[in-house]
Amino acid sequence: MRCRLTERDSWANVSRGKGARPGPGGHPSPERLEADRKLLALVERVRTGDMGAFEELAPLAGRMAYHLALRSVADPNTAEDIAQEAVVRLHAHVHEIEGVGAFKTWFYRIILNLVNDHFRRYTRRDTAFTTLEEIRSLERKTRDEPLSEMERNSLRDALQDALDSLDERHREVFLLKEVEGLGHGEIAKILDVPEGTVWSRLSYARRKLQEKLRRKGFTG
């Protein structure tokens, strides 16, 4: 099975609208909860033999994969390739998932494995990692002297280098927490590690990223 991507329905285009952001205190927003309910309902329909539901499930799952992959590989074409392969694997193995409650854990693991495969093949990426929240944070702290375009580009390059420096264990925890907004318990289930390990890996990743940025002159 191969889902054909068109200009109208590619994962990149699907993802250009507003995403379901975390709610106050890091809790899932009502929009995120509703999206999850719709996703799991479609998974259940597919698991019970309604393969027509996969036509609805594919773009939602593809958006999940594209969003996480893009924040890691920083290249839209590569992110689309990863999303495409993730959806292909979903189609092939959806009936093996042990209940809809396990779907997100299973699918995030698929995406992370594909991202890690990419990192193993390419030790250096040419495009810059863009974290708008980081840029806005620095701008809030320097309102009197907003970041210039050159400084923005330097920050993006610094963030990319910092993310590149993490090994996959720490990078995947950082992505699931800071990009996807998942809780420590959810991340522990996805990675099959104790919750305390998630806390320690996340702390290490944040510290290393801060050190890298500080050495390059960014103190946000």
Task: Describe this structure as you would to a colleague.
It is a single chain. The chain has 220 residues and is mainly α. It has two domains: 1-124, Orthogonal Bundle (Rna Polymerase Sigma Factor, Chain: A), CATH 1.10.1740.10; 128-220, Winged helix-like DNA-binding domain superfamily/Winged helix DNA-binding domain (Arc Repressor Mutant, subunit A), CATH 1.10.10.10. 67% of the residues lie in helices and 0% in strands. It is built from ten helices and no strands. It has helices at residues 11-14, 30-47, 54-73, 76-93, 103-121, 132-141, 149-165, 168-179, 184-191, 195-215. Helix 2 (30-47) packs across helix 3 and helix 7 (149-165) crosses helix 10 (195-215). The longest helix is centred in the last third of the chain and has 21 residues, at 195-215. It is globular and about 55 Å long. It starts with 10 loop residues before the first helix and ends in a 5-residue tail after the last helix.
Number of helix segments? 10
Low-confidence segments = 1-9, 14-21, 123-136, 138-144
Helix-strand topology string = HHHHHHHHHH
* Mean pLDDT value: 75
Distance between the termini: 46 Å
Helix-and-strand structural type:
mainly alpha
Strand content: under 5%
> CATH homologous superfamily of the largest domain, by name?
RNA polymerase sigma factor, region 2, helix turn helix motif
| Rg, alpha carbons | 18 Å
Q: What is the CATH class designation of the largest domain?
A: Mainly Alpha
Fraction of helical residues: 55-70%
Instruction: Give the total of beta strands.
Output: 0
What's the story with the biggest beta sheet? none
- How many domains? The number is 2
CATH fold field value of the largest domain: Rna Polymerase Sigma Factor, Chain: A
CATH architecture of the largest domain: Orthogonal Bundle
Broad shape:
globular
